[in-house]
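Researcher: Next entry in the queue.
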Amino acid sequence: MTRDEFERNLLIIEQQLKDGLIKPQSEQPKDYSSYKNPETGTDKIYTREDISKMSTKEYSKNEKEIFAQMKSVGIPYKNDLPANVKTHEKEKSYSASSSNSDGK
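Model: Structure for this entry, 104 residues:
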């Protein structure tokens, strides 16, 4: 679009922005499937939901790993991840269910 075309259509463009018809280009989705945490080398992803459910003690225990993830790929929402990605929550529920199956 030339500058003249833009100026002629400016009111329409502004209205479309207000109405949500023009959306910013979204960045490419991150590939979490090959993620390794720089701090620990694990493939576990901490989600915003995981972190919000943590006790202070649990957060302190995982803080370095969380910050390393934040600096490298960010902290996604659970819904932003493919189902096959290992998260902190899945790891906890997996280890809890494995101990129950042993009758412990």
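Model: Residues 93-104 have pLDDT under 50 and may be disordered.
Researcher: Noted, moving on.
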